[in-house]
Model the fold of this input.
Amino acid sequence: MNYVANTLEHYWMPFTANRDFKENPRLIVKAEGMYYTTHRGDTVLDGSAGLFCVAAGHGRREIADAVARQFMELDYGPPFQFSHPAVFELSRRLSEILPDGMNHVFYANSGSEAVESALKIALAYQRARGQGTRQRLVGRERAYHGVNFGGLSVAGLVKNREAFGLGLPGAVHLRHTWLPEQRFSRGQPEAGAMLADDLQRFVDLHGADNIAACIVEPIAGSCGCQVPPKGYLERLREICDRHGILLIFDEVITGFGRTGNGFAPQSFGVTPDIMTMAKALTNGNVPMGAVAVRDAVYDTVIDAAPEGSIELFHGYTYSGCPVAVAAALATLDIYAKEDLFARAGAMSPYFLDAVFGLREFDVVTDIRGYGMLAAFDVAPDGGPGARGYEILKRLYEKGLLVKVTGDSILLSPPLIAEQSHIDEMADKLRAVIGSL
Ligand SMILES: Cc1ncc(COP(=O)(O)O)c(C=O)c1O
Done:
């Protein structure tokens, strides 16, 4: 497909410095395996798996074929009161790789919608079990849970919140999990488990009977890879159990191998009641989000409704859309065939060695990493985020695409990365960071 962009003016780009971009655009015209090709014909290594989504690498023929076949067989069918076989099969396949006891899956079209669905399911569950006063939602500072109002309300990145009003009433926020003494911790930091006790403080302040759920990213991703301190997730789980609060893991980034296992519970040993997924669910190739719930959550909501009536008044025109389902099934096949989750675990030490090697540069003030996800911070220069943005542009010129949040540079290569790709990534990072 070859489109010529004669003008850049009419497209309002998301999360982008539109004016700056349009003066010197970064257009990607092709992708294959670990690499992009730019509109200038340059090759750029994908250091971020797109936006944490292209775990199996770009241009996977198996996914394209599955989508094309599905399109010609059944392009669309309404998901309310009707369905199609493939979405049941996808749900069964997911339940095979999800933590034990999470055997029910609800579908959305993005991570943001998965989060909205998870929060609504939590509220509906509490109401269904006769605990309808539990309406307060607990989020966390520095969290990213997408951009819709529910997710925004429990999230904690100021720039994403400040222009958009009050959000949901009653949302409260745990402190974030970063402490100065954690600097340059590789894997889970030693200090910080006690930060989970903020949840107990909310119970003491608001009353457990008013709290529906607590949502966290197992590893806070978008804010710059903040890995949970040892004991932190365990403590959250304990407090939730003690007080009838649902624990939600937002696994939109961490799901599907990023932590070196299928999902965070398999890496951290703590299982939530509800889990969101998106991104790598379809290798980022077709939009899709999903929510997995523990059997008790599903059973409670379903059983509370009268026989023959709709149990959950929630869903999307494209919930379980056949084409997205076909992409997801083909993606899961690739993950299984190429054992990509285990591969991520095996590659992680090499990847983390490369990223932590940046410590020698004075401008690098912290490095964090777990599995195949890492980030480093640079000392701000010229206002918050200015240096981070400059690094993003310079790296792109040099042939490496990364995600930047403020002055944190995030790295999450596709899980098919070879050591040679990690070396190339490190060389480019060192060249640019060394030139600052
Ligand atoms: C943890 C988390 N939740 C939700 C989202 C939102 O996903 P989407 O952009 O698909 O709406 C993201 C996106 O990065 C995310 O990282």
